[in-house]
Design a protein that fits this description.
Strand order of the largest sheet: 1-2-6-5-4-3
Number of helices: 6
Radius of gyration: 23 Å
Structural class: alpha+beta
Shape: globular
Number of domains: 2
Order of helices and strands: HHHHHEEHEEEE
């Protein structure tokens, strides 16, 4: 037991902050199973080394989490040279309001680019504000859907033709009535790229709604 803890501690100290965070989570759960003595008993060198390793790993984990949270959710897309967008798209690209990674309950699709981010109040001014994010990616919708089915395995899903919907809130979404999503925030819709003239390489469009 002591040797295993010592080896894990050394590995934690040598890891990057992301790796250390992952390993320290594992070690914390293991410590809970065997009791506080696993990391608090400093009666010999092995436990002392383990405790120092855990403390160092937790510091790295905290720093890594803070750094990750401050990262923008996704990079902004850029229009091809010579393309004149509509006023809304032009405004979104000129004045981006990119949320941080920790603000959105949906993980960003790898390689996707943000094309719009704005607040809305669906159902009247008395309703809580929602944020809408719109992204594009070069991957086909089927691949995007496959990714989110893994990442959001606890969410409900529905499909209507090429329109794929994910939602977390309670209730039954009617694919033929988009307004039924209003009470199911957060939600996400994945479909084909509707603006190939703006994003010629993109194959999929992702729309996400969440409450800030």
């Amino acid at each position: 037991m002591k040797r295993v803890c010592f080896i894990v501690a050394v590995a934690l100290c040598a890891s990057t902050s992301a790796e250390a965070g992952w390993l320290s989570d594992k070690l914390e759960r293991a410590a809970e199973r065997v009791g506080d003595k696993a990391i608090s008993d400093v009666s010999d060198g092995a436990y002392t080394g383990t405790k120092k390793g855990v403390q160092e790993a937790l510091k790295k984990k905290g720093a890594g989490s803070s750094s990750e949270a401050s990262k923008p959710y996704a990079p902004m897309a850029t229009l091809p040279s010579g393309v004149k967008p509509d006023p809304f798209t032009e405004s979104m690209l000129a004045n981006p309001s990119i949320p941080g990674m920790n603000q959105v309950s949906v993980p960003p699709y790898p390689g996707a680019h943000l094309i719009a981010a704005y607040p809305v109040k669906i159902g009247g001014s008395q309703q809580p504000e929602q944020m809408i994010l719109k992204l594009v990616t070069d991957d086909p919708p089927e691949r995007v859907v496959e990714y989110y089915r893994r990442e959001l395995s606890q969410w409900s899903t529905a499909q209507l033709g090429i329109l794929y919907t994910f939602w977390k809130g309670e209730g039954q979404f009617d694919p033929g009535n988009s307004s039924s999503l209003r009470e199911m925030v957060p939600w996400m819709v994945i479909t084909n790229n509707p603006n190939p003239e703006y994003w010629p390489q993109a194959r999929s469009h992702i729309e996400i709604s969440y409450r800030p």
